[in-house]
Design brief:
The protein is an alpha/beta fold and 415 residues long. Helix content is 39%, strand content 18%. It contains 11 helices and 13 strands. The chain has a 5-stranded antiparallel beta sheet, with helices on both faces. A 5-stranded mixed beta sheet has the order 9-7-5-3-10. Strands 4-6-8 form a 3-stranded parallel beta sheet, covered by helices on one side. A hairpin with a 3-residue loop joins strand 11 and strand 12. Helix 3 crosses helix 7 and helix 4 crosses helix 5. The chain starts with a helix and ends with a helix. The relative contact order is 0.17. The N terminus is likely disordered.
């Protein structure tokens, strides 16, 4: 009798062990941040969505989250992809968390003493990375000083201070050498075309600032007998004027809707400079990593960030990471977050691309890399967070964009 009782207990113990093991194999993996990083959630697949993606002629990953954060669809969603301009979503997040949405970039002008109509002292101009300081705004800054102090003649020098950013890093790491991209500088001018900077030294920016400074003074009728020099603004000089940019939220909106690389890179460098005192790639990456961990719980092993715009071929992000970020941003900013993303109904990177308007997204495109990430409200009034990424294809980018459009239209129409 005792023997049978022991066998019975062992049998029950075995059954319980098998049940627990089976349950454990179905359980979510270790939590790694704002969401559980779990790939290919079989029981949540929607067959038509999977069938649409599965034969993609390259590498493709996708994740769709429901409004309650549950995984609605997942395919290769933890894999790392070159994100192209989807990287700007990380830049938007990092900038708003670092500075706050109402932050304004300063550009400061000081002098050896209070200027007089005929002034013999030096004037100093220091940039702090204002991403939207265009030639006209720069001219307005100079005009304010000339008119306020009734300057007619300058006999001292004008000293330009570029030191807020690392002047040896005027391009991003991992950028293609034969692609015309903007140079990066703490005092720079936002232009429409950057082809003149391709394969040019940093001194071209310095020459450009010098040219616009001299041309503006000439337009104002100021006699300038000094020189344009590069140097640091001393601490003990008389502050004449601080020009303020537009609010950061408005700048981020331009960056995301137009996918502006120049704006993204200057924001990127300014984030590192704000925390560590110098705008360098290394300092900015450290801030990004700290924010992704402190706000989203994401570890460095889950991504690689090399720049702010997504031009770098070194960047690697996953659909899960971007969905995690989109959920965080939407939870914090609500409709304001939707407003800074691109939409089909306004001039943006997805203008006229979709036949419905309830989609807010950021797109990305490089050479054989594409993606789209954002928020969609479907015909059935369901809200989803989505990220679709593609790499290593030989099709044209136009064909890949059509693939993305059809996939999101399928989601909109049926779910």
């Amino acid at each position: 009798m005792v023997f049978l009782k022991k066998v019975y207990i062992q049998f029950i113990t075995l059954i319980l062990f098998l049940c627990v093991s089976a349950y454990a194999s179905q359980a979510s993996p270790e939590k790694n941040g704002f969401f559980f990083f779990k790939d290919d959630v079989q029981d949540t697949y929607q067959k038509d969505l999977k069938d649409f993606i599965v034969d993609f002629p390259g590498i493709c990953g996708c994740e769709i989250l429901s409004e309650d954060k549950s995984v609605f669809f997942s395919l290769e969603s933890s894999k790392l992809f070159i994100p192209a301009s989807l990287n700007k979503l990380i830049t938007a997040f990092s900038a708003l968390e670092t500075f706050g949405p109402e932050y304004r970039y300063p550009t400061k002008i000081s002098s050896d003493s209070k200027p007089t109509p005929v002034f013999g002292g030096n004037i100093y101009i220091k940039g702090f990375g204002n991403p939207v300081l265009n030639p006209q705004k720069y001219k307005d800054v100079l005009s304010y000083i000339v008119k306020t102090y009734a300057i007619k003649e300058l006999n001292g020098d004008i000293v330009i201070d570029f030191s807020y950013f690392d002047q040896s890093q005027y391009y991003g790491k991992g950028w293609m050498w034969d692609d015309p991209q903007p140079q990066i500088s703490a005092l720079n001018l936002w232009l429409e075309n950057y082809s003149i900077f391709m394969n040019k030294p940093y001194s071209l920016i310095e020459d450009m600032i010098g040219y616009y400074t001299l041309a503006s003074l000439k337009d104002f009728g100021v006699v300038f007998n000094g020189k344009i020099k590069n140097g640091k603004m001393p601490e003990n000089k008389t502050l004449l004027y601080t020009h303020q940019s537009e609010e950061l939220f408005d700048i981020v909106k331009i960056m995301l809707e137009k996918s502006d690389n120049y704006i993204a890179e200057h924001i990127f460098r300014s984030i590192g400079a704000n925390i560590y005192g110098l705008g360098s790639t290394e300092n900015s990456v450290k801030v990004y990593e700290n924010l992704l961990f402190s706000k989203l719980g994401l570890l460095k092993k889950n991504y690689i960030i090399a720049d702010g715009s997504g031009l770098s071929m070194y960047n690697l992000l996953s659909p899960q990471l971007l969905n995690s970020l989109n959920y965080f941003m939407y939870t914090k900013y609500k409709e304001k977050y939707l407003d800074i993303l691109a939409t089909p109904g306004e001039k943006s990177t997805i203008e006229n691309r979709f036949k419905f308007s309830t989609l807010w997204a950021k797109t990305g495109t490089l050479y054989s890399d594409s993606g789209i990430s954002g928020i969609i409200k479907t015909k059935k009034n369901n809200l989803y967070f989505f990220t679709l990424m593609e790499n290593n294809y030989t099709s044209s980018n136009l064909e890949i964009k059509e693939f993305e459009t059809k996939f999101l239209t399928l989601l909109y129409e049926n779910y």
